[in-house]
Design brief:
439 residues, alpha/beta, Four Helix Bundle (Hemerythrin (Met), subunit A), Rossmann fold, 434 Repressor (Amino-terminal Domain), 3 domains, 8-stranded mixed sheet, 8 strands
């Protein structure tokens, strides 16, 4: 989402860093450019005004102007103000002292509430909780069915009663949770427009009856300033406790994400990328500011890796590498683990300095699909003993995988090179391409 914003900000900041001497005039000129970039990104104009004023106030201080690296100092000030704009620190989910903890999900139609509800249940399940999903959208039968399908995918029960009101369903679900030792109840409500008084009254009544510990307002990040305006109206009616930004993998300008917390004065608690049920992240303002300024987000990347890679599996793999027993089956398993972490571009963007470079790189997201098809077209013996892959076997794999023989040969060559490198590393040798590099 922040690609265009990030690239434009990087261009401005590169000029600031390149200045040998910083003066009030070139600070003001740079801030005018930043102001234009933020407005182009659909950030609320009042938010932009205050942001620029705060940066300017800090940037023209004598300690910055006299600094040895004034450009870097100003970049640090912009980073700090971005963090302040988005909430300073992460905001945790509040749990009730008595079970179950009730979480009410609200938002307009099409914002992604149902998918988020399932993602949140999956998130809690991985943290040792026992959630119950509640299908309280009685106006859209497809929503009930969708939640049941999603619940089945993550092995989490979905509560629903036919021909009952949303209020009755929600109240009964809490009783069911108590009886079945479910410690978190996530209520997926119907999408509603803020102009629909009847629907707004219904969700207000659900709130009054079930007394949720958390009310999360789900925002489609692609709707820009409309999302901010809607959030204001919902907050006046519900006084929600947190914001969820969905569809951050889209190509919108990102203004809503930067504006909404400041406008409604409520924390962003989660961000969601894509449709997969494991693509939910807790929101860290400092990490998001780092991504926006092209500094990467190594901490989140490490967390993603730790989440997907089991320590015992990692030790087994290390042992295989040490004994030079790395096979195509192991290779395939590594591909599966990388794919679970999200798109390759998304992973690369978390590396420092890669933000604006991604568009220049030829990153083929479908390349893994080809490799998978080629490996899966091999027999078990061929995966364990790649050296037996002669011409006729390669031709059969080519036909079976729907790839050319050249592509099959390319995969085999890459695998052989990987095996050679692993052998060298296991013996304490340094491959030629690493020699001379300083870490």
């Amino acid at each position: 989402m922040f690609e265009e914003l990030s690239q434009k900000l990087e261009n401005v900041l590169r000029k600031i860093r390149g200045e040998g001497k910083i003066s009030e005039s070139n600070v003001s000129e740079s801030l005018r450019e930043i102001r234009k970039v933020l407005l182009d990104a659909d950030v609320n104009f009042k938010v932009v005004k205050q942001f620029i004023e705060e940066v300017q106030k800090s940037a023209i201080g004598q300690e910055v102007l006299r600094s040895i690296t004034p450009g870097q100092q100003i970049v640090k000030i912009i980073y700090d103000e971005l963090v302040n704009l988005m909430g300073k620190e992460k905001s945790e989910i509040n749990f009730s002292n008595t079970t179950p903890t009730v979480i009410l999900i609200a938002g307009i139609q099409g914002s992604g509430k149902t998918t988020f509800s399932a993602k949140l249940a999956n998130y809690f399940f991985k943290k040792g909780k026992h959630p119950l999903l509640v299908a309280a959208d009685i106006y859209r039968p497809a929503a009930v069915e969708q939640l049941k399908i999603l619940g089945k995918q993550i092995s989490i029960p979905v509560f629903h009663i036919e021909n009952k009101s949303a209020i009755e369903i929600s109240q009964s679900a809490i009783q069911s949770a108590r009886e079945n030792a479910r410690d978190v109840v996530i209520i997926d409500t119907a999408g509603r427009l803020h102009v629909d008084e009847m629907m707004m009254n219904e969700i207000s009544e659900i709130k009054n009856k079930v007394l949720p510990k958390e009310i999360l307002f789900v925002v489609d990040s692609m709707t820009g300033q409309d999302a901010v305006n809607t959030a204001k109206i919902f907050n006046e009616r519900l006084d929600f406790s947190g914001i969820v930004l969905t569809k951050l993998d889209g190509d919108a300008r990102g203004g809503a994400a930067l504006s909404i917390r400041h406008v409604v004065n409520k924390p962003i608690k989660f961000i969601s990328n894509g449709e997969k049920l494991n693509t939910l992240e807790q929101f860290y303002p400092e990490r998001m500011a780092s991504r926006i300024l092209g500094m990467g987000d190594v901490i989140s990347l490490v967390e993603k890796v730790q989440e997907q890679i089991d320590e015992k599996d990692a030790q087994k793999l290390e042992e295989k590498i040490r004994k030079s027993e790395f096979t195509f089956d192991d290779f395939l398993e590594q591909i599966y683990q990388i794919k679970k972490m999200g798109s390759i571009k998304g992973i690369l963007k978390m590396l420092p300095g890669m933000g604006s470079q991604i568009d220049k790189m030829n990153v083929d997201e479908k390349s893994f699909v080809k490799v998978e098809a080629i490996i899966q077209s091999m027999t078990k013996e061929e995966r364990r003993k790649p050296h037996i892959l002669n011409g006729s076997r390669r031709k059969r794999i080519s036909i079976g995988s729907g790839n050319s023989i050249q592509e099959v040969n390319r995969v085999l060559k890459q695998f052989n090179e990987m095996q050679k490198m692993m052998k060298m590393v296991s013996k304490g040798k340094i491959p030629n391409f690493l020699k001379g590099l300083k870490f």
